[in-house]
Specification:
By secondary structure, the protein is α+β, with helices and mostly antiparallel strands. The protein has one domain: GIY-YIG endonuclease (3-Layer(aba) Sandwich), CATH 3.40.1440.10. The chain is 42% helix and 24% strand. It contains five helices and three strands; from the N terminus they run αββαβααα. It has helices spanning 4-7, 30-38, 62-73, 75-84, 86-90; strands spanning 9-16, 22-27, 51-59. The chain has a three-stranded antiparallel β-sheet with strand order 2-1-3. Strand 1 and strand 2 (22-27) form a beta hairpin. Helix 3 (62-73) packs across helix 4.
Length: 95
């Protein structure tokens, strides 16, 4: 199996521990990108550190990742994430 960080594009959602707001993005190297956010190297998020990675999914190519990122930033995408992460946001275990 190929190295996952080299073969997938990752769409991810971060939640700021400072203000509680979410940030959605995509990358080909999720650990490196998360580290960049945490160290303040990403201009759009540097004042909202620290972050928690609350969601990610892999896409087979950049075009799909861009479409998925755009969707997750939309009203319906935010609704999807709210439902998908319901137990995380409420602290309840869903069985």
């Amino acid at each position: 199996m190929a190295n996952l960080k080299d073969t997938y594009y990752w769409v991810y959602v971060l939640q700021s521990k400072k203000d509680g707001k979410k940030y959605t993005g995509y990358t080909q190297n999720l650990p490196l990108r998360f580290e960049a956010h945490q160290k303040g190297k990403v201009p759009s998020t540097k004042h909202r550190r620290p972050f928690e990675l609350i969601y990610f999914e892999g896409c087979l190519n950049k075009e799909d990742a861009l479409k998925r990122e755009k969707y997750l930033k939309s009203y319906y995408g935010k609704m999807y994430l709210g439902n998908r992460l319901k137990s995380y946001f409420t602290g309840q275990v869903v069985e």
